[in-house]
Amino acid sequence: MADLEDRIRESQRMGIQIAKESEDDRLMTLSVGPQHPGSGHFRFVVKLDGDYIVHCDPDPGYVHRGEEKMCEYRNFIQNIPHLERPVIHDSTNITYSYSLAVEELTGIQVPRRGQFIRAIASELNRQIYTLYWLAIYGIFLGHSTMFMWPAGDRELFIDLMEALTGARVTHAFNIPGGVRNDIPNGFKDKCLRQITYYEKRLKEYEDIFYNNPLVRQRTEGVGILTKEDAINLGVTGSVLRASGVPYDIRKAEPYDVYNEIDFKVQYMQTADSFARAYVPFLDMRESCHIVRQLLDKMPESGEVRAKLQANPRGPPGEAYRRVESGRGALGYYIISDGTPKPYRVKISVGSFRNMLALPHLLVGAKMGDMPVIYWALNYWPVEADR
Amino acid sequence: MATLPGEFRFGNFFASIIWVILVVIVILTLIVLPLLFVVLFYTPLPPVNGEVLTPYLFLTSIVDPTRTLPIINFYIHQIPFKVIVFPGFIFAAIVAAATIFVERKFLAKMQLRIGPFYAGVWGIGEGILQLAADGLKLISKEILVPSGADKPIFWATPVAFVATAAAVVALIPVAPGWVVSNTSVGLIAVFAILGFFPLIALLFSWASNSKYPFIGGLRALHQMIAFEIPFILSALSVVILAGSLNLTEIAQSQHTFWYIIFLPVSAFVFFISSLAELERVPFDLPEAESEIVAGWLTETSGMIYGLIQLGSYLKVYALAALFVILFLGGWHGPQIFPPQLGPPNAIPIEKMLTLQGFYEYLTANAIFWFLVKTVIVIMLMILPRGISPRIRIDILLHTGWYKLIVLAFVNMFVALALIYSGVLGPGGSLSIH
Fold first, then answer.
1. Looking at the domain assignment, is residue B273 inside a domain?
2. Interface mutation vs chain B, best among A48, A149, A367, A374, most B CBs within 10 Å
């Protein structure tokens, strides 16, 4: 230090200004996003000390569309198509809890066959979302095959959903009172065939990606979120289950027909990025069993949609219902003032809750771990902004 | 459909064609032919059938097949041909272009997709012209220079990158005598030239005046320095066995045994280090997309990007060829080419068609086996891109400094033991005498 001060004194005598290195000069501020291949519609400012991240400041809001406000100007049925825009890859699940909440408000009873079809669509859509998520996780790790395979196998389920709903991505299938239409002929056989093939592919995913020593090396022990921290930060879904908390809305608050289905809540104890990447994979595998059971137990015939009045409305009141989406608990809190339009709609999404863990995990991590930690949080920026 | 202009006269059209032909003939006779004779007067001309050609006799080779092949034969052994065409720049660029195409198709097959498909010729060769299309696109794009960039360095480094890669190619022999620069310290020269690449990456990243390229340049520097030492050490055990630094002599000394038989660990270390040197998966950290956008290539656009890609694929060819020369016996392989293509007593036109006086069966065989082995090594270098993720910088440095250096030493002791026990080396029981 004395050396530096001597140099400063020397330079002042010669009339030259040199900067004294402070703590801030050591740090490099990087703005990751929104035009960064590893960020999505999202920005987080990180400060680097060498290769270590010492500060992280998430900055969401680039794709805020005011979905909650838009709900107040449309009636309960008209809200469906725009509500699935925040996460079009999981569009059945994001309208599922809305429909449940509206049914509670208006006192509609969904026919039993309709409940089964809803659950089937929900599970198939969970696969679509998780495959998309896994594809991006693969390319974030630099594994281009793991990008192409899930992105290609998504077509299996997109084809099924197209047969079921008529649309490939934005289905607008769940509506208050049931589902839009009955399942087509031959759907059950096609679905079972696709799932049998898909389960074979899941084994190959495990071989090329999850059991790859380099993937293990990069993800194991990286970004540990302990059980206590996970509960305190309020994360949900696969992130919470990866921290050793076996909490799944389908088990904890069973909705529709999920209390008749026999399935296990998939969770892991290691609480690192590998666990957070592996739990959605286990969920996909479990989801295949769920779809098989649902197809088995579904009534052969019956109504799929309750008869509604032209503008469904209920008594003034409020309702909060949530479902397990691809990213965790997805809840809708709706206040009705007795008119056909909701008075207030609040969407509680898993993405936003999981994003809160990002600064906690990134500080102290290495720069190379940034995409590994970030995308394992199962965060969908558009959904978080709503 | 185009329509004829109103004042069109067929006679005028015909007359204009005649005029063009006349002007061309006048230019040819008055300017081109005298110039050609001046040039031919000063250039060395080959001796054919025992007499040195005059410029006049040289021009008659256009119609005399007995003179054509000896003339071609004379010129392809000259330095300019070797530098520009074979085994120099154009040959390496063709191998690089083929590598890009094969890589894209090969990777696509692994990932259950089709790859380049529409840019083909006459309905065959799906996607074979994709590279030409990409090249045209890159040439026609605007080159964006970031504000605040160090412009001279920004423009110079892509050219320097290609030039440096081509300089490595110039040291690679593809057959006995077929090398641009046959220096006695060929291997050292290769490593010396490869040492320029981290400098170029760092210069370019600094000149870009941007943060992500800067991180990428530093990563490239760290990575290449960490892998330079195991790279050189693994080649050193080959030098111990061969007793020479000349690449042609190293390849010739593997006439009986390939060195990969004695030095498998060195070959492994060399292969891994060359992947790191080439910044290929799993060592593509300087271009890690999800972390630092495109690393030190972030600010490249248009043909600057094209040049750097060309340079890096030239490097792929050069290092694959170096692996073949050091470990896979160079051009040695079973003789499959016949000594002569046609009957010895043939009429002149038949002699020309069967390439007599031009075709050397030993050289053809050497080039064939060299190419086959190089292509196999290039395919092995492409393979990790389909099955492996990127590794982290600290694991990379740990691998380079701790593991690979130790492994490289292991086989160096094996090489020394083979020398001192009298198995290999000068006067060894398994060497050629």
1. yes
2. A367
The DSSP line for B184-204 is TTHHHHHHHHHTHHHHHHHHH
Predicted ipTM of the assembly: 0.80
Q: Give the Cα separation of B193 and A105 in Å (integer).
A: 75
- The predicted-structure confidence for B296-346, as pLDDT tens digits, reads as follows 888 888 889 999 999 999 999 999 999 999 998 888 888 888 777 777 777
Inside any domain, residue B363: yes
Domain carrying residue B310? 149-420
Please answer whether residues B242 and B220 qualify as being in contact, where contact means their C-beta atoms are separated by less than 8 angstroms. no
- 3-state SS assignment for residue A177: coil
Distance CA B384, CA B394 (A): 20
**For position A279, which CATH number holds?**
1.10.645.10
B36 in a domain, yes or no?
no
pLDDT tens digits, B35-74: 988 888 887 777 776 777 777 777 777 777 677 777 777 7
Rounded CA separation B151/B155 (Å): 6
CA distance B196 to A249: 58
- Asked if B111's CB is within 8 angstroms of A145's CB, the reply is yes
- Residue whose pair of structure tokens reads 């196998």 in the numeric block: A153
How far away is chain B from the Cα of A150, in angstroms, using its nearest Cα? 10
**String of DSSP letters for B266-296:** HHHHHHHHHHHHTT-TTS-GGG-HHHHTTGG
Backbone angles phi, psi at A300, to 5 degrees: -65, -35
Q: Is the dihedral of CA B259, B263, B264, B266 positive or negative?
A: negative
- Distance, CA of A49 to CA of A350 (rounded, Å): 31
Residue range B255-265: mean pLDDT, rounded: 85
- Is residue B361 within 8 Å of residue B340, measured between CB atoms? yes
Residue A232 has pLDDT above 60, yes or no: yes
With contacts defined as CB-CB under 8 Å, which chain B residues touch A369?
Answer: 392
Q: Per the structure block, which two tokens stand in for A241? A: 């289950």
Split into its structural domains, chain B has a count of: 1
* Residue A49 within any structural domain of the chain: no
DSSP B3: -
**CB-CB under 8 Å, B289 with A37:** yes
Q: Taking every pair of C-alpha atoms in chain B, what is the biggest distance, in angstroms?
A: 94
Q: Is residue B138 part of a domain?
A: no
Indicate the SS3 state at residue A30: strand
**A249–B contact, CB cutoff 8 A:** no
User: What is the distance in angstroms between the Cα of B129 and the nearest Cα belonging to chain A?
Assistant: 24
Distances (CA, A) of B312 to A297, B223, B317, B382: 59, 16, 9, 13
Let me know: does A171 contact A165? Beta carbons within 8 Å: yes
Q: Test B211 with A38 for CB contact under 8 angstroms.
A: no
Q: How far is A363 from chain B (nearest CA, A)?
A: 16
Burial class (CB in 10 A: 0-12, 13-18, 19+), B243: middle
Q: By residue range, what is the domain housing residue A178?
A: 66-385
Nearest to B308 by CA among B200, B215, B171: B200
